């Protein structure tokens, strides 16, 4: 792992009661891969179209194979719809995800969509010829406070690099990939991830979450239920006013759940979001994409039926997965904060990294 700053658990901050996976990351779900492409160029005054640039791309691949040929059950839950994502409607309608998930900045959605589309076309010569089209799934947040967002600096090769370099194992967090220019709860935000293990009899399933955090003001920040942000604001003074912002939450699991059950699980992610202080502002785009790797839906299948098994809807085990979604979301957001370094962007705009020693002092005082 290339993080230069500690994660929450490295600081002694443990969230929830469920155990984490070995990496405490979405890649604890077997087969899930994550890749980043980071673009940091220039400094000083903004020259629209030229920089400074603080942006990038993050790619999540639910499995290493061809997702168009072997789709995964998927769901989308829109907490607040102030966003410019693509592909959501078809996932909601059909309940499957057939491309990797791409995260980037708001005005680069078009370029990312085009690159992901070309990536899928190269893998599948039958698309648009002997079979239907493809549904590229691209989500975004606005990094314009630090980045020359009008420049749309994300290019095809950045998207392809994130896709082709996606790997299992530890996930780099903070100022990386799509999270490079993002802000969260008054500080530098970005990419964060966490996971939980759910044991059911002889079975053990993983629930992993990856976030691109870009929402909230300092005073709203809560850690382990403690209003840390209010105390930080007293110590640091009022910082630059933060616009409503957004968050993208991607949840993966290897639990055998249907697309309808995935929608129920995705809804619980807003519990973790609320725990860190989000109030789901009117101008925020808060989206959850969820998928399961337990059952695959083959594109070329002559049968009129899909085989597979799913948990019962009245199962207590499903409730444990709900709890895992809440905990993993909460910790992933806090990891996005703790892992992010201070960054200066266009026009000297600066987002401070979370002042870790100050946070620990506040937490210690409250617990004393």
Produce a short descriptive summary.
The chain is of the alpha+beta class. 25% of the residues lie in helices and 25% in strands.
How does this model look, in words?
The protein is an alpha+beta fold. It has one domain: L-amino peptidase D-ALA esterase/amidase, CATH 3.60.70. It has seven helices and 15 strands. It has helices at 88-94, 109-123, 156-164, 228-236, 259-275, 316-338, 356-367; strands at 33-41, 53-61, 70-81, 96-97, 101-105, 137-141, 183-184, 187-188, 190-200, 203-215, 245-253, 285-292, 297-298, 343-344, 350-351. Strands 3, 4, 9, 10, 11, 12 and 13 form a seven-stranded mixed sheet that branches. Strand 9 and strand 10 (203-215) form a beta hairpin. Helix 2 (109-123) packs across helix 3 and helix 5 packs across helix 6 (316-338). The longest helix has 23 residues, at 316-338. It is globular.
What are the defining features of this structure?
4-stranded mixed sheet; single chain; 368 residues; 7 helices; alpha+beta; L-amino peptidase D-ALA esterase/amidase; 7-stranded mixed sheet
